[in-house]
Amino acid sequence: MIKLDGSYLEGGGALIRVALALSTLTGKPFEVEKIRSGRPQAGLKAQHLSAIKALKEICGAKTSDIELGTERFWYHPGKIKRGVYEVDIGTAGSISLFLQAIIFPCLFAPGKVTIKVKGGTCGKWQASVDYLQNVLLPHLRKFVEKIELKIIKRGYFPKGQGEIILEINPRFKISGYESFSQFSEDLIFKTAKTTLVEQGKLEQIRGNVNASLDLQDKEVAERIKKSAENCLRNYSVPINIRTEYQNTFSTGGEIVLWALFSKDGKMNFDNPVILGSDALIEKGKSSEEIGREAAERLKKEIDSKTAVDKNLADQLILFVALLPGSELNVMEITKHTQTNIYVTEKFLEVGFKIKGNIISVLEKE
User: Domains of the chain, with CATH numbers?
Assistant: First the structure.
């Protein structure tokens, strides 16, 4: 039984999500205490409960009794299964944070996995579903035959009720191996290491501004788009930012931007360099401020000459840990990233070395 300290560093929910993902894939049970002790309201939240409930279906996991606010529990995974799974997180519980516990083990299921999720599609202190779709998922394609996230309906705080469908067609099926170590050896042999060190040449900037229909009369999305474009024009590359309005249960929205880079005129399929940023539509902030905020964040990432933005780094830790010898060049190594390293080293036979802005994955001796 792996023991985890839920108060480690920032003491947030990432530690739980990453532990659930790693435990489910490796088959190693864990126990955690002091859950989210670094947050104003400690204990499990709705997206954690939804993730655990979904994993009970996906792999027949068993846990101690849990409810909202539980600060200590144990988790015993079972065998991952293929199938169609439907989850309603309720209100604006984060779809992206829920998926952080689910995607990793489902990449290696015995067959196709389809997950239909209802909840919040964007919100504070989280990557949105658009960020997952355009920045994270391209890095996971080398592990699978196909992975696709479709946004069916937008859902903003506080009522949420957004909907997505995630489809995964695995390439490596862990059920076909006698042990996790055998699976790991085959994966390492057949999959390109993650090498994201050089930024390369900026080719284009893309983006999406999504907003609730009640903001259309004031042209909020268009004004956010124009503000972001004006901030980014000095890069002299094509800028393509889409706008969309949708009838939603709550007023809200966001802008998500991502910059695409090439090496020798080509995007690298195995190691795409994509830097992302975002900003929420919030009361008290003008559309122009929101567009400028997202653009300035992206400019900071681009000008850093690094190859992984600070939010992507923490999400990639689990995946790069499967491929020793991988390297990430990150603008900022956050507490989230350090927390995910702490958990990952408990489950996998790897160690992480941080030198300056470079994170390297090493096999344990």
Answer: 2-185 (3.65.10.20), 201-303 (3.30.360.20)
